[in-house]
């Protein structure tokens, strides 16, 4: 079952056929979504009524294109703001964590490492509701004691950012730690021998070395935040991020404007994915 | 190095240690540990009247006495296990093909091709399946065109549709760990297996699968976790009667505003997923921190 071992013609052909079917299965939904964004029909389904760009550029109801759909455009902006905030916060903490786990020795390190990994095995919905419950408990207590309502602890954008930050940090930590592990720490010592203090050595030698991992972790964090549904669903207030806005429309049975949004999303993710591949390629 | 100097160095590194420890401790305690503790406490409360609560396990007894809750829970677990097994069965030959049968550019290209759908949001992927499977969708229209059906067929809103969606959504998390473990298997071991008289089945069972075990386990754990906690796919592809447990949690929290019951459900789901992850690790003798990073 490796190329150097002879196998029957029939076996090889059926294997290749299987692999081909798999990739059709993998690509079909994406291709279908993209193609139907150009269908001149009120519904994202057959029959095919000819091509149109209305779902992108038309400015009147009922065929409102994405570039004129203010509700969806606003939700895209909401998602971008959430993703930027989440990415910055999780990168900062993840970098600290990477230094902590790769450089320091302290009692309880293993336990802390396992705790750091737990967000990976907590279902998103549960992480969301637990943060919802806890933040409301605090908000209710403060309101009872001081008669002041902390708006940020009620469902809304801040809570969404906090919820996403809670688990995206783990993923960023793993990415940055992996790179820091490969760092030759004698370089840092050399910088210190040449008169740099520890902070300067880290800032001028170690952080530039970590840059590809920081960019990679940043892109992954941004995309994970942008796409997140489960945790966000539980914490969302009146401003809906894109995934939630699209979900609400999908339940009502929407027009192909959703296909047009999806195509834009695919293009955006593809660009970011290529960028991250490029960054990793360059450093490798 | 003078004693004074070394003392100052160790004290700065101690401060440094605490500076690095403080953020992670705050993060873990405020966003992970305390919220779950609070959820346990809330799940053990019963509302007697407005703003008046007492300790009670009634939220848990409600779960065991109401067949709908209990059935949904078991159903979610069983469907997740089936979805995990099917994902493994489908992904293994693909991963093997990429890792062992291909080399060079083609190998990288196919591997990257596997990743592409997952850079796209889960919502878009599920939406694609809705367009394919719905009554006026591709498959139904194709079947009519080919004369295999004389009226539109609704393929959404059943368990098979949910299963397709779940497997599709999980594929990446199985393929990536499998490819990386299979990649590290030395081809000469496979050749040796054949040289010693083994057939393909022996080689697969005694050499390839044991070597791939860490990848199989980590893939299965992640896929199972994500499936069990999935909300979007069962809701959209399964319709109103998808009976998924995360949906029950959502209903209790957001629709009915019965947080006590919802918290109890959340804890039960967390307990189930932890139990199965733990059992998987024990059975395969893998360690959590190794599998997850």
Number of strands of chain A: 0
Helix content of chain B: over 70%
Helicity of chain A, in percent? over 70%
Total DSSP E strands of chain B: 2
Global outline of chain B = globular
Poorly predicted residue ranges of chain B? 1-11
Compute the gyration radius of chain B: what is it?
25 Å
Largest sheet of chain A: none
Mean pLDDT over all positions of chain B: 84
CATH overall fold name of the domain at 74-253 in chain A: MetI-like fold
List keywords for this structure.
heterodimer; A: 284 residues; mainly alpha; MetI-like fold; 72% helix; globular; B: mainly alpha; two-stranded antiparallel ribbon; 78% helix; disordered N terminus
Structural overview:
The complex is a heterodimer of chains A (284) and B (293). Chain A is mostly helical. Chain A has a domain at 74-253: MetI-like (MetI-like fold). Chain A is 72% helix and 0% strand. The two termini of chain A are 31 Å apart. The mean pLDDT of chain A is 86. Chain B has helices at 3-43, 58-65, 67-101, 104-115, 122-133, 138-145, 159-183, 187-195, 200-228, 232-238, 245-255, 259-284, 288-292, and strands at 45-49, 52-55. In chain B, a hairpin with a 2-residue loop joins strand 1 (45-49) and strand 2 (52-55). The longest helix of chain B is centred in the N-terminal third of the chain and has 41 residues, at 3-43. Chain B is globular, with a radius of gyration of 25 Å. The model of chain B is unreliable at 1-11 (pLDDT under 50). At the A-B interface, helix 1, helix 3, helix 4, helix 5 and helix 6 of A face helix 1, helix 3, helix 4, helix 5 and helix 8 of B.
Walk me through the topology.
The complex is a heterodimer of chains A (284) and B (293).
Chain A: H1 9-36, H2 54-57, H3 70-103, H4 109-117, H5 124-146, H6 157-181, H7 186-193, H8 198-227, H9 230-235, H10 242-252, H11 257-283
Helix pairs in contact in A: 1-11, 3-6, 3-8, 3-10, 5-6, 6-8, 7-8, 8-11
Chain B: H1 3-43, E1 45-49, E2 52-55, H2 58-65, H3 67-101, H4 104-115, H5 122-133, H6 138-145, H7 159-183, H8 187-195, H9 200-228, H10 232-238, H11 245-255, H12 259-284, H13 288-292
Antiparallel strand pairs in B: 1-2
Helix pairs in contact in B: 1-12, 2-3, 2-12, 3-7, 3-9, 5-7, 5-10, 7-9, 7-10, 8-9, 9-12, 11-12
């Amino acid at each position: 079952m490796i190329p150097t071992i002879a196998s029957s013609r029939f076996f090889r052909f059926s294997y290749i056929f299987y692999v081909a079917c798999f990739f059709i299965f993998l690509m079909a939904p994406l291709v279908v979504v993209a193609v139907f964004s150009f269908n001149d029909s009120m519904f994202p389904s057959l029959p095919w009524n000819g091509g149109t760009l209305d779902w992108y550029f038309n400015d009147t109801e009922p065929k409102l294109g994405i570039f004129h759909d203010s509700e969806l455009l606003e939700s895209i902006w909401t998602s971008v703001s959430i993703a930027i905030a989440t990415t910055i916060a999780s990168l900062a903490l993840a970098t600290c964590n990477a230094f902590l786990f790769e450089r320091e020795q302290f009692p309880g390190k293993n336990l802390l490492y396992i705790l750091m990994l737990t967000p990976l095995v907590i279902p998103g919905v549960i992480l969301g509701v637990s943060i919802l419950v806890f933040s409301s408990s605090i908000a209710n207590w403060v309101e009872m004691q001081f008669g002041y309502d902390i708006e940020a602890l009620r469902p809304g954008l801040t809570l969404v950012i906090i919820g996403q930050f809670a688990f995206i940090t783990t993923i960023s930590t793993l990415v940055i730690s992996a790179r820091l592990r490969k760092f030759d720490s004698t370089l840092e010592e050399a910088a210190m021998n040449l008169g740099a203090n520890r902070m300067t050595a880290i800032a001028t030698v170690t952080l530039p070395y970590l840059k590809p991992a920081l960019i990679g972790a940043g892109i992954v964090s941004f995309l994970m935040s942008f796409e997140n549904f489960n945790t966000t669903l539980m914490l969302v207030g009146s401003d809906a991020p894109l995934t939630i806005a699209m979900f609400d429309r999908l339940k009502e049975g929407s027009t192909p404007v959703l296909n047009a949004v999806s195509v834009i999303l695919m293009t955006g993710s593809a660009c970011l994915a290529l960028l991250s591949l490029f960054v990793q390629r360059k450093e490798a | 190095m003078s004693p004074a100097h070394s003392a100052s160095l160790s004290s700065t590194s101690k401060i440094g240690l605490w500076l690095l420890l403080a953020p992670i401790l705050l993060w873990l305690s405020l966003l992970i540990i305390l919220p779950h503790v609070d959820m346990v406490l809330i799940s053990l409360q019963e509302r007697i009247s407005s703003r008046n609560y007492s300790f009670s396990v009634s939220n848990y007894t409600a779960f065991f006495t109401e067949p709908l809750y209990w059935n949904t829970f078991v159903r979610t677990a069983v469907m997740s296990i089936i979805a995990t097994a099917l994902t493994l069965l489908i992904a293994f030959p693909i991963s093997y093909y990429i890792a062992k049968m291909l080399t060079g550019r083609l190998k990288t290209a196919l591997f990257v091709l596997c990743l592409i759908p997952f850079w796209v949001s889960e919502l878009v992927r599920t939406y694609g399946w809705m367009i394919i499977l719905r009554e006026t969708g591709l498959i139904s229209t194709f079947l009519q065109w080919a004369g295999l059906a004389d009226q539109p067929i609704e393929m959404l809103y059943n368990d098979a549709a949910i299963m397709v969606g779940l497997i599709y959504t999980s594929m990446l998390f199985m393929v990536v760990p499998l490819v990386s473990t299979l990649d590290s298997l030395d081809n000469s071991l496979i050749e040796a297996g054949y040289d010693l008289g083994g057939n393909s089945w022996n080689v697969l069972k005694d050499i390839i699968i044991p070597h791939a075990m860490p990848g199989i386990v980590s893939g299965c754990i992640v896929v199972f976790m994500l499936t069990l906690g999935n909300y979007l796919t069962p809701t959209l592809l399964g319709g109103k009667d998808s009976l998924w447990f995360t949906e029950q949690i959502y209903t209790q929290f957001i629709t009915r505003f019965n947080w006590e019951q919802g918290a109890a459900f959340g804890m039960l789901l967390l307990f189930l997923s932890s139990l199965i992850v733990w059992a998987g690790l024990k059975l395969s003798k893998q360690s959590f921190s190794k599998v997850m990073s």
